[in-house]
Design goal:
Blueprint (H helix, E strand, L loop, with lengths): L11 E4 L8 E4 L5 H24 L8 H23 L10 H26 L3 H11 L7 H7 L2 H15 L2 E4 L2 E4 L1 H16 L7
Antiparallel strand pairs: 1-2, 3-4
Helix pairs in contact: 1-2, 1-3, 2-3, 3-7
């Protein structure tokens, strides 16, 4: 344990005699929270930059972007924790206890979920992005409601999504019906957990 500053969570037990009883007082100390925050931010930036570099170099990643991003973030997390473990006595800002590593995870995973949700939404060309791009292309002329309604069609937005979901194995087509696969249900639960954790609702 480092002696130059107290750890993030340190228990100091002080026993006092009071009529034969020994009550225990527990004191909590806040350690280098800014250092832990900076370490967490560096890990997130490293994961995002690595992902973008691999995409730029057209490195062979898993076809499913969700799996690819999770693997990259997991690799960066393990690498960061490994480096921190061996250098924790040299640099004060590195996590040095289970509680400090837990704080990093509390920050890291919600940001990872945010990045996954944002990336998948942009990659799938959401209706909102389609409308925004269509209106922006008109510049000062603008677009009428009827013009916007012309681009919001099943052929332009819905059918391509269905094809992608069939290809990725999220859904399957049987007897004239689309059914969710085990893989699709797992991904749906994952995204539902992320949205709940980030307190994102359909209303915005």
């Amino acid at each position: 344990m480092r002696n130059d500053y107290p750890p993030t969570l340190q228990w100091r037990i002080i026993q006092k005699r009071n009529h034969g009883l020994k009550p225990v007082e527990i004191h909590f100390y806040s350690g280098d929270l800014m250092g832990i925050l900076c370490f967490s931010v560096v890990l997130v930036i490293a994961a995002i930059v690595l992902h973008l570099i691999l995409l730029k170099l057209k490195f062979r990643l898993p076809s499913n972007p969700l799996i690819a991003i999770i693997l990259i973030f997991f690799f960066v997390l393990v690498a960061g924790f490994t480096i921190s473990f061996f250098l924790r006595n040299e640099y004060n800002f590195l996590p040095n206890s289970i509680w400090e590593y837990l704080q990093v995870l509390i920050f890291y995973f919600p940001v990872m979920l945010s990045y996954v949700i944002t990336y998948v939404a942009l990659e799938d060309d959401s209706p909102s992005m389609t409308i925004a791009r269509f209106v922006e292309q008109a510049k000062e002329k603008g677009r009428s409601r009827s013009q916007i309604m012309q681009i919001i069609t099943n052929e332009a937005l819905i059918l391509p999504r269905i094809k992608i979901m069939l290809k990725d194995g999220w859904i399957e087509y049987k007897n004239g019906q689309y059914l969710a696969t085990k893989k699709g249900r797992s991904y749906n639960q994952f995204f539902a957990f992320g949205l709940k954790l980030l307190r994102i609702t359909r209303e915005g």
